[in-house]
Design goal:
The protein is of the alpha/beta class. It contains twelve helices and eleven strands. Keywords: Acyltransferase, Endoplasmic reticulum, Lipid biosynthesis, Lipid metabolism, Membrane, Transferase, Transmembrane, Transmembrane helix.
Length: 330
């Protein structure tokens, strides 16, 4: 039976819902609309706009092009309050250094990372003064005209070695580059109560931090997996087979997620109002090693897993995680 939302709710709640709806719209539909507009302009008297943009499209994009105006939109504050979302600082980040952070878990929409590390709804620049935050995103999202510039304005950068090197090698420090390590493979297992991280064989970010000598920061976002449900896709099911095959073929797959609706609470694509708390751990000091050996990579990788596990264990009881729950690595 469908559970409808009350007819009269505070304006604040309506604005929060609208802000999240805009975010959902951006990543489900807006990129497609941008493609239609780009192609459509070619067949109008404004065709030169698309031509000029095509030239602009090929200019270097490493490091993104952040816009303080967009990052400070009031919209992000309402989105933060919808869940609500919190940012917890456990240690200071020295603005004279560069940092590479691993963000866990991926969840369905990486909402904690997007809100806390890209937008100023949580006041990241006040919590970590002197630090400019960047978040890596699948390269495919940067293939959509106009949409690419929109997401770059928020601090998102393409997930490739060139972008990472450009940011981590900046002189003077003050840069934090976050990587959602588990990627889409981890998103396929994201559901309420899940604490399984795809990390055991993910060592590329470890090699990067060694090459550039950037301090390594573990980040865990409590509640990230709880804001959406997902259609059952246990190993052996046809859905799991399809998603796995698609991932291996295209390096992208589709988690069949669902949550609540806009005007009813039973089913829809809106996330549940569940608290998300992103905890930024203590930096791990890294010695710059231009040509790290596999042994050095493995050693730092194990150190990172240990620090991430300790971060989770230290804070889990504060955020409604059962005492006997531990992280699983695969």
């Amino acid at each position: 039976m469908v559970e409808f939302a009350p007819l009269f709710v505070p304006l604040e709640c309506r604005l929060q819902t609208l802000a999240v709806l805009k975010w959902i719209f951006s990543f489900l539909i807006l990129h497609l609309i941008c493609c239609v507009v780009f192609i459509g302009l070619l067949f109008t008297r404004f065709w030169m706009i698309s031509i000029l943009y095509a030239v602009w499209w090929y200019t270097p994009q490493q490091g993104g092009r952040q816009s303080a105006f967009i990052k400070h939109w009031t919209l992000w504050k309402y989105m933060k309050d919808y869940f609500p979302i919190s940012l917890v600082k456990t240690a200071k980040l020295d603005p004279s250094r560069n940092y590479l952070a691993g963000f866990h878990p991926h969840g369905i929409g990486v909402i904690g990372a997007f809100t806390n590390l890209c937008m100023e709804g949580m006041g990241f620049s006040s919590v970590f003064p002197g630090i400019c935050s960047h978040l890596m995103m699948l390269n495919m999202w940067f293939c959509f005209p106009f949409f690419r510039d929109y997401i770059m304005s928020m601090g998102l950068v393409s997930a490739d070695k060139e972008s990472a090197a450009h940011i981590l090698s900046r002189k003077g420090g003050g840069n934090l580059l976050s990587i959602v390590v588990g990627g889409i493979q981890e998103a396929l297992t994201a559901r309420p109560g899940a604490y399984k991280l795809v990390l055991q064989n993910r060592k590329g970010f470890i090699r990067l931090t060694l090459i550039h000598g950037a301090a390594l920061v573990p980040i865990f976002s409590f509640g990230e997996n709880d804001v959406f449900d997902q259609v059952e896709n246990a190993p052996g099911s046809w859905l799991h087979w399809f998603q796995d095959r698609l991932l291996k073929t295209t390096r992208f797959s589709i988690p069949l997620f669902y949550g609540r609706g806009v005007f009813q609470y039973s089913v829809g694509f809106m996330p549940y109002r569940w608290p998300i708390t992103t905890v930024v751990g203590k930096p791990i000091k890294v010695q710059k090693t231009p040509h790290p050996s596999q042994e050095e990579v493995d050693r730092l990788h194990q150190c990172y897993i240990k620090e991430l596990s300790n971060l989770f264990a230290t804070h889990k009881l504060k955020y409604n995680v059962p005492k006997d729950q531990h992280l699983e690595f695969c």
